[in-house]
Amino acid sequence: MFVRIVRTDGKIELAPAREIDLLIQEGEITAFCRAEGWVVIGKDAIRTTQVPYSGVGRRWSDIVKRCRSFARASVPDDTQGGGS
Fold it and tell me: Origin, by domain of life (predicted)?
């Protein structure tokens, strides 16, 4: 899919939609057209580049993994020969 863009020199062109983020980051465009109308970079709301989430996971599979690793860490190691 192609999107209409306005380059910094004022030239209107078509660009692949997948390249819009890169064009914005490199400061090569001043505006692009969405279905709702034109978006002006620096004035209108655009999505920000997403950073991978580095916090504790909240999915069920993350909770199960944490419980398993906690259970392994809290079980005393009786292989050292001190047991009865």
Answer: Bacteria
